[in-house]
Amino acid sequence: MAEECSQATQTQTQNSQVEWSQHNTPTIIPNIWGRIYSTKGRHCWKEVTSSESPGYYDLIKPEFTLGRALNCSFVMKKDIIKDDIIKNVSKLHFVLKRDTSEPLSPAIITDLSYNGTYVNNVKIGKGNSRVLDDNDEIAITHPVVKIFVFKDLLKNEQDKVPKEISQKYYISRTLGQGACGLVKLVVDKTKCVQYAMKIIKKSRLTNGHMNNLNDPAKIMNEINIMKALRHPCIISTEEVYDSPDTVYIILELMQGGELFERITKHGHLTERLTRFMLRQMVLAVRYLHSKGITHRDLKPENVLLEGKEEETLVKITDFGLSKFVGEDSFMKTMCGTPLYLAPEVLRANGTRCYGPEVDVWSLGVIFFICLVGYLPFSADYKELSLRDQILSGRFRFSQAHWRGVSPAARQLMKRMLTVQAARRITLDQILQHPWMQDAEVTARVEELLCRNIQSRNVMELTISSTTFTSSEEDTSSNTDNTTVIAVMAKGKRALSDSYSSCEPIPKKLRVDMFPMVVCEPDGEDTSSGHSAAYSVE
């Protein structure tokens, strides 16, 4: 087969039969994204001379069709196709499409026939689709009636991932990249469903130093956490592949992007939409806490939106900094993104403990940004260091931005950003807060949650090789996901002025004039009376 394709390639300048010719060929070489070669199979084509042989067909347009209908790209005619074959061919037998405007998009074949279209001897099924791979064989009416071999002429990255992944998924464009790795768009070849593939190097070097958050134990910690989670507002995992130097995590694709992008696009969110988003985030974090899991790195970049419409499901992702925490184990590590760190995390300094209340603080910072569109704490606010701003609860308060925000929303924000963890509002209290009481919003959230649960096809998480263990940490979960085994964080990490993290530099928001305000533990605030202009790029 490969020899036939090679011969056809060498003779591609020869004239081919009229059905295969590209009329009105422009002087500029066309953008050919694929090519299909005739197999010259004895079960399909009539015996013809080499000059009459169909040869090959260049795929230039986004759509190629085959059938008996005269308007098909390739018309099945009696003079070249055997009679016993053509009588079983549909007017429109199959269509082959590719989105030429989308970089690295896959070629997708859809079966429209009654008697079957086959790829590599496997029937697609009427109305079903699958991704075509380089050198795939296409047959019609029966597996032995092979008519074409598909050649993919666009560059892709199938050879850059383990074979077990490339056999199942088509590797497309890059969706995002950070210090810990990158995220690729992938397509399941048989289901034609898009996913996001997170690629994490186990021993990536950053500025010449080992990135501690990329060691095998921490990666498998994240995988074990994700394995245990089943909630509409938590990103779901399709599969996990573990290679010697890299872990590939197949995640559901969120078409709506990050919450951060949604905020920056509109400047800020309305109170109703903020309430709609916050309710889902609180439900998700409450679920995590019920499983003994503290996220520790909540931020708008780790809150993804399912769709581009205004009211859509939000899903929390990125558990690289999470831990299983039980009654007798506490978190002492100083980690997370600096702008969203709770005061007790800074005070821990690797010796003192902090609890899941840190997630409420981080939610409070997200809540703040949603309402007014700027950061409450930043290293660019020069009167105090970022560390001192957080430890004292001093956030930037702009009367111009907060003027249109209701008193109830302000009061909830202050209770979430209460310095003393013991006096900080709880997740259940947030849901019961007067500002959160909106029957229409609650009903809409419940509707989306129920719809997601009903449509979700929960699949077993597959880990392709042995789980790693570490001398510092050990994480595990019951196979029925009913309990989470507590883990003692034995290692201690000293407080660092650089707030070292595997995350890229946090995204920031532009701000104007914000007087300094102190948020006391009891929710009262006192203004310092100071104002200054800052531009946080």
UniProtKB/TrEMBL annotation:
Domain FHA: 64-124
GO molecular function, one term: ATP binding
InterPro entries the record matches: FHA_dom, Kinase-like_dom_sf, Prot_kinase_dom, Ser/Thr_kinase_AS, SMAD_FHA_dom_sf
Record Pfam families: FHA, Pkinase
Domain of life: Eukaryota
Name recorded for this polypeptide: (diamondback moth) hypothetical protein
Keyword ATP-binding: yes
Keywords: ATP-binding, Nucleotide-binding
Region (Disordered): 1-22
Organism field: Plutella xylostella (Diamondback moth)
Keyword Nucleotide-binding: yes
Sequence ranges assigned to domain Protein kinase in this UniProt record: 169-436
